[in-house]
Amino acid sequence: MKDAITKFQFVEEMAQDKHGFSYEGASALFDYFEQYENDCATEIEFDPIAFRCEFSEYENFEEIQNDYNDLENLEDLYAHTQVIEIPNSEKIIIQQY
Question: What strands, in cross-sheet order, belong to the sheet with 55-58?
Fold first, then answer.
């Protein structure tokens, strides 16, 4: 049994504490999952704990380089993992690798 969740519910849950995502980041992550479901004709089960473990939001690329010092540029990051750029900001969500 899978439960449908709205974008509002997703964003409220994922942005509810300091260890979560910003509202903009949670919204971008929801859009990513929704597009993935449409592209792959599959359903993703809502699991906020797993999402927080698998994806991280960064303020900018330089902050990512602090955790992944082998990256020289954004193209290197795209070559290693899934990247979700948050519109109208420098913030980036990546799938941890």
Answer: 55-58, 92-95, 83-85
Per domain, the residue ranges of the chain are: 7-95
Q: Which of 7, 17, 9, 4 is nearest to 57 (CA)?
A: 17
CA separation for the pair 10, 7 (Å, rounded): 5
C-beta of residue 84 within 8 angstroms of C-beta of residue 92: yes
| Tens digits of residue pLDDT in 45-93 | 999 999 999 999 999 999 999 999 999 999 999 999 999 999 999 999 9
Q: How many CB atoms lie within 10 A of CB 91?
A: 20
- Give me Rg for the CA atoms of the chain: 14
